[in-house]
Amino acid sequence: MDAGLTGLLGGVIGAAVGAVGATASAWITGRKAEQQAKIQSDTQLGQARLQIDAERARALDDSRKSAYLAFAEGWSQVHRALGDAAIKLGGIAASDPPEEREERRQAARRLWNEARVLNGQLSRLMHVIFVEGPFRMADAAQGATGALVADFGTVIDWLHAVDNGSETPQHGAEQRTAHSDAYGKLLEFLYAASDATTLDSPGNRNP
């Protein structure tokens, strides 16, 4: 083969090999860059999702706290009114002048009626607890409101006994027991609320 032709072919082949090598290198570099960009994009997307999840959990936590505190305050108002009614009834003695006895009796009845109105408002607050969740909080709220039923009953029984002049120390003892038991149910609700509003609590991740 002619030396000149050999040199020409060698140059062409060398150039072709060089071009292929450059193309392959560019393709590999491009693939690496594409993979790195995808990894970076996936990482950023993952971080964004984590941030959104954290913000949603924080918003849910705040919403639940507000609902639980409103319920606890409403419950306490009912409980306090019943306790005040019992204090009025407990201050009545058979030896009291009729006008003083009647004044305390009427005051106790007003407080009992006030508690009944407040209890109606408490029912609406309990509906919010059902919406906010989690399910165990609805159970705790029902337990707390259910305990007030016995408290209401002992006060009205005592009041009727006073109306008839047939009250006994037993009426006061039964009211105090029901009043104390009811408060115990509120504490159970508050303990459950504390667990439900802890962001890293397993129960808080299951609405």
Describe the fold and architecture:
With 207 residues, the protein is mostly helical. It is built from 4 helices and no strands. The longest helix has 88 residues, at 3-90. The N and C termini lie far apart (85 Å).
Task: Give the helices and strands, then pairings.
Elements: H1 3-90, H2 98-132, H3 135-164, H4 169-196
Helix pairs in contact: 1-2, 1-3, 1-4, 2-3, 3-4
**Outline:** rod-shaped
Structural class computed from helices and strand pairing = mainly alpha
Residues in helices, as a percent range: over 70%
CA(first)-CA(last) distance: 85 Å
Number of strands: 0
Number of helices: 4
Strand content: under 5%
**Based on the structure, what is the oligomeric state of the protein chains?**
single chain
Q: Could you state the order of secondary-structure elements as H and E? A: HHHH
Largest sheet: none
Radius of gyration from CA coordinates: 38 Å
Q: Low-confidence parts lasting 5 or more residues at pLDDT below 50?
A: 48-57, 202-207
Q: How confident is the prediction overall: mean pLDDT?
A: 80
Using brief descriptors, characterize the structure shown.
207 residues; 4 helices; disordered C terminus; mainly alpha
Task: Give a brief rundown of this model.
The protein is mainly alpha-helical. The chain contains four helices and no strands. Mean pLDDT is 80; it is low at 48-57 and 202-207.
